[in-house]
């Protein structure tokens, strides 16, 4: 079985915890800015001293409210600076953070609060408090609910005024590296979520390993800062938070996706962490805007040049003179404007949570933003590998962090072992044992390959491989990635398991649909539901399908597709909070559409 281990660059003592770094940095760099939060619509700076004081005051309040070492405290909020203050305050009190997505249903909240035996919950809004109240009589461990928008932090600080530093130190004293820091419930596409227990040591090792693996992102010379807009209930966003606090650089927050462009312009981050969908949307909307304004030919030429330039960077001779001249021209005409959309300072971005298409990776590197695709799971704290600025292989998720071993099993499944691994699934010994093999490797459920240099390529999910009625194995992810680069397509789901051929379900991106409607003489407000059989639209989308099919064999190609009347959303249940498609939910909701594609006789 192919296997690769990167040399360990980080060592931790058995008693190292996530709170240690806060004490060290407030001592050594009290005036260093660590938080940038919104005040009257503008970002205001918070130093380490101010952050430390708020964390300790909040921790005192938690102790005053009966939170003790090992107790579980739920956090249910959008991404905002109070989340980070509360997270570190919970750890200062010796307790365990249980993140809950603010989009969760009452049933999901009930399960998480009950399974984790949460004793206190802090939620963002009165509406979320009402949601928790719906299940309060079925969550016997939950004693109290505090609301951020109703002054939860102010209440905690006031109530904790009488708690001494000695009491807080006593609460923290029993916490060691192997103590559980957080229980993150997986937002899986099927089944009931499992509570993934991550220790202080695993989370801290991941922070320091990421810093050692990607020094160009975090060194003082790069004047590092970032804007966090992913939900903090997600493990990857939590890593961004912890890196900023532990390494020591400004972290700005954006909780409103509609204000993301403005927040990028105001905060001017040096690097970003985002899901591939963000990069797909930036590209698709830029292309659509250019074509809608009559500058489509210029954009298309700039796109081809960016991709060619990036591809040439991987060759021995590099870009030729003519290509360099075209690239310089388009840098002035196009690329500078696209970089400005990301704030103007971003030179590196880390893409995680789903595969990024190679073409898109080359496009962004060609315009001056190197997207470093990485990989990880909640169970790996979460990151375990990433491409590095000087060692990028497009289409791979890079090499493992130092001290992490990656193995590819005989059936193609990616296995992982190292200090980043989770402690186990909360109160679920059976699932924990099933997730680990006899050598202590975690079974990721992903399929992949390792090359001789240790670069890992993810080829699909083991459970999502489609087997057609003819016995052909088809990985849906590569086709879906190609389809989603089309500006009109929001989501693409490839189907065909036990069916006679491969097909696709497509949803429309309403933001890029409006220019298309205008250009084709239709009312700009025409809803997607009225376009599912539009022949001109279907012809445009057929071009995207044909382009995607060039990447696979004829047997794997998409033979039919259907446009769905609505997009997938977290609220309607087709997407997980980390924006992965829940395939079973889509198949259930749009069963009639699937039947229309295949016909009732070929249903199975």
UniProtKB/TrEMBL annotation:
<dbReference type="GO" id="GO:0005524">
    <property type="term" value="F:ATP binding"/>
</dbReference>
<dbReference type="Pfam" id="PF00501">
    <property type="entry name" value="AMP-binding"/>
</dbReference>
<dbReference type="Pfam" id="PF23562">
    <property type="entry name" value="AMP-binding_C_3"/>
</dbReference>
<keyword id="KW-0436">Ligase</keyword>
<dbReference type="InterPro" id="IPR045851">
    <property type="entry name" value="AMP-bd_C_sf"/>
</dbReference>
<dbReference type="InterPro" id="IPR000873">
    <property type="entry name" value="AMP-dep_synth/lig_dom"/>
</dbReference>
<dbReference type="GO" id="GO:0004467">
    <property type="term" value="F:long-chain fatty acid-CoA ligase activity"/>
</dbReference>
<keyword id="KW-0067">ATP-binding</keyword>
<dbReference type="GO" id="GO:0016020">
    <property type="term" value="C:membrane"/>
</dbReference>
<protein>
    <submittedName>
        <fullName>Long-chain fatty acid--CoA ligase</fullName>
    </submittedName>
</protein>
<feature type="domain" description="AMP-dependent synthetase/ligase">
    <location>
        <begin position="26"/>
        <end position="426"/>
    </location>
</feature>
<keyword id="KW-0547">Nucleotide-binding</keyword>
<dbReference type="InterPro" id="IPR020845">
    <property type="entry name" value="AMP-binding_CS"/>
</dbReference>
<dbReference type="InterPro" id="IPR042099">
    <property type="entry name" value="ANL_N_sf"/>
</dbReference>
